[in-house]
Backbone:
């Protein structure tokens, strides 16, 4: 029997291009040997995205929609989408066609060769600002130095995972998941296919700087303890410095250097604050985890069979 491939597409305010995406994917799917389901996750769009998808569901029962009750973010939309798939393999891709469907057959080929996870490696990125490409390149290189996992450089969330990998992903219950890090973390046989990342077909990026920073911080704080260790070094610095200074003052008897004292104190206070900041970000994650809230709330599911009713978050 032919394989079933599930495609997970997170959607946030994509009304400008979502219809084109669906039509393009329908055209692509109709030419393939495999069976396909398209699982859209509407991440609290405030526009007509969900309505457009529901309209398409009427005509095509291979299209499904998971609708979030508000915007929970791209990473949680992917996490949720995975849970609603039934395919032998699952492909995650953006809903703006920046990840071209033509790459999927190459991913499937690698999967058939025996790889569990095939990630897309961006060889070239069109229509993205120098700032975005530069900060992204910097992030991946810094992450590599800090992290406990060996995440491949310059990969996004465009990838294929087989059922086994998806099942393992579902065992991870992080509040603020960094999906590409989690995928690396679960291990298995992984490989890449290179691809040319296109410009988005319509609309603007849904990843403002604030969301990019959150993603980078989630990535680092969930896969590296090094910044926390750095805080320890930082807090030791003023202490050791102060001690050395005290010994120096005792030795020379020069206890009148008030200005130097003030400068030192300012430095110490600055460093302590910095350390506290770093501690704070980790504590934030711990608190999130301890709270143990469901990570997202689904308000509605459309186009599923009984299976969806048995999913618990
Ligand atoms: N997205 C989402 N929730 C968000 C932000 C983005 O589901 O809070 C979706 C968006 O609709 C798109 C994908 O995530 O399908 C990637 O976002 P975008 O294309 O804006 O990011 P970029 O390609 O500019 O990095
Ligand atoms: Mg995009």
Residues:
């Amino acid at each position: 029997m032919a394989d079933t491939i599930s495609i997970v597409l997170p959607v946030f305010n994509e009304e400008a291009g979502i219809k084109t995406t669906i039509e393009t994917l329908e055209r692509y799917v109709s030419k393939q040997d495999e069976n396909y389901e398209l699982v859209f996750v509407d991440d609290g769009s405030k526009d007509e995205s969900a309505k457009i998808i529901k309209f398409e569901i009427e005509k095509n029962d291979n299209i499904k929609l998971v609708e979030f009750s508000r915007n929970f973010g791209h990473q949680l939309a992917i996490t949720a989408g995975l849970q609603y798939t039934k395919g032998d393999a699952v492909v995650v891709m953006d809903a703006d066609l920046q990840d071209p469907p033509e790459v999927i057959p190459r991913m499937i080929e690698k999967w058939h060769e025996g790889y569990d996870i095939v990630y897309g490696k961006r060889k070239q990125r069109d229509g993205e600002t120098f700032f975005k490409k530069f900060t992204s390149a910097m992030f991946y290189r810094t992450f590599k130095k800090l992290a406990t996992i060996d995440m491949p450089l310059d990969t996004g969330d465009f990838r294929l995972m087989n059922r086994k990998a998806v099942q393992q992903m579902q065992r991870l219950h992080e509040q603020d998941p960094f999906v590409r890090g989690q995928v690396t973390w679960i291990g298995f046989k992984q490989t890449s296919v290179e691809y040319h990342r296109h410009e988005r077909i319509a609309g603007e990026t849904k990843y403002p700087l604030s969301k990019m920073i959150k993603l980078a911080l989630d990535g680092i704080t969930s896969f590296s303890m090094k910044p926390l260790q750095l805080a320890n070094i930082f807090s030791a610095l003023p202490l050791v410095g102060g001690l050395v200074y005290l010994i120096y003052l005792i030795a020379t008897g020069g206890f009148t250097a008030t200005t130097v004292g003030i400068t030192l104190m300012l430095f110490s206070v600055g460093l302590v604050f910095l350390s506290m900041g770093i501690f704070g970000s980790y504590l934030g994650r711990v608190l999130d985890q301890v709270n143990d809230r469901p990570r997202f709330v689904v308000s509605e599911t459309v186009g599923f069979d009984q299976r969806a009713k048995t999913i618990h978050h």
